[in-house]
Amino acid sequence: MKLLFELGTSGRHCDILPPCDVPEMSPECLRKKELRLPHLSETEISRHYTELEKQVYGVNDGFYPLGSCTMKYNPKINEAMAALPGFAKLHPLQPDYTVQGALELLRRTEKYLCEITGMDAMNFQPAAGAHGEFTGLLMIRAFHQKNGEKNRTKIIVPDSAHGTNPASAAMAGYTVVSVPSGEDGCVDLEKLKEAVGEDTAGLMLTNPNTVGLFDKNILEITRIIHDAGGLCYYDGANLNAVMGITRPGDMGFDIIHLNLHKTFSAPHGGGGPGSGPVGCKKDLAEFLPGPVTEEKEDGSSGFAVPESSIGAVRSFYGNFLVIVKAFAYLLTLGADGIPEAARNAVLNANYLKKKLEEFCPMAYPGTCMHEFVMTMKDLKDRTGVAALDIAKGLLDNGIHPPTMYFPLIVREALMVEPTETESRETLDEAAEGFRALYQRALENPDEIHEAPVKTPVRRLDEVRAARKPVLRYFYD
Ligand SMILES: *Cc1c(COP(=O)(O)O)cnc(C)c1O
């Protein structure tokens, strides 16, 4: 496919901009060389982008079981609400009294999300999950500093954690202590007890964890950390399995982030932007980033900066329209729909797991939560076909591959999260497609090394793309 720069004919253009209504620059300020822009008509531009759109794959194209990412359907009503001019056309510097509706929306979203998570206060500034983690860690640091405990320099992270957890802890200036998981995929309590001490600032944990298991020792885990004087941080990326059913606040967590772009149905994965609000218990609310929303004496809504705030972590109030989408989703599902979505997410994952484990080994036996991890280790040992090859093979079946090589504690991992928005027929079809592929891998491994063959581009050199990205067309 040609690039925009390779299309078009010199002199062709489309006049979609209104005439210039500001004074022209004096000639010496103007560029000497003509800007190298493509010369295209509106039709050509439109066709170009439509063609590009056909070459990508998204949740609206088909099954997208990307583990840990919760690629659920993004209801169109959310988009319609976020596009309302009263939300979309606001300016962040407008006086409070002109944006009372938007403030009310922020306050109500905060209230609902606090209820779902068992937190007391929340701030919407962080723009993603990892950004929320970093924010939460700065709050943990502010808390210990206020208590005069500067010696608390270590953050404990299970070895199954998402890579962003240790990365955020390191960025916040902490030393990361990794605790191993037991045979059962959950935190090894004895190892955890050995890891805590007077230098423990806190623990970061997601529950259900990244192998799709709910850690049944969670109360014991948070107690061990609290007894050592640390705080417990909940990575809320996996909340889709438990929302409306159990709450991180009741599990003993002090600070959390949510991924509105996962659990609460805002688009992500190239379709962003995201939102990673940070919530906390009462005692920590003074450290939240500011501004936060508050109710004023006259009953109207306004903003305030918490007493010992860590400061702003992003401009203004975060990605406001993502919060509008999450709010629309919360209202659409309601108090009954939220836990029902979680139950269906867990049901779908177990249904698919049951079908796949007839022929493919799982990393952990038994029932799972909203996702599960398969291992291609046996297959690789027998045939040379690796998790990567299987993932590429699935592309030819019109399925987005599961997450690959994560979590790191499982060899040749493929992590599957179907989400609640898939039908039984889709799951059946995906299971059959996967079975056929697995069979082909056993019988004709070389063929799978060639996959994909039906996609717009064949197997890409992902390492080179990451190491030597070519991000512009002209070099001058
Ligand atoms: C996605 C994810 C994150 C990071 O969230 P982003 O919004 O991608 O920054 C953290 N932890 C887990 C378990 C995740 O799945």
Automatic annotation (TrEMBL):
Domain Glycine dehydrogenase C-terminal: 341-437
Name of the protein: Probable glycine dehydrogenase (decarboxylating) subunit 2
Residues modified to N6-(pyridoxal phosphate)lysine: 262
Cofactor needs: pyridoxal 5'-phosphate
Oxidoreductase recorded as keyword: yes
Domain annotation Glycine cleavage system P-protein N-terminal: ranges: 38-294
Signal sequence interval, chain numbering: none
Family: Belongs to the GcvP family. C-terminal subunit subfamily.
Subunit: The glycine cleavage system is composed of four proteins: P, T, L and H. In this organism, the P 'protein' is a heterodimer of two subunits.
Known function: The glycine cleavage system catalyzes the degradation of glycine. The P protein binds the alpha-amino group of glycine through its pyridoxal phosphate cofactor; CO(2) is released and the remaining methylamine moiety is then transferred to the lipoamide cofactor of the H protein.
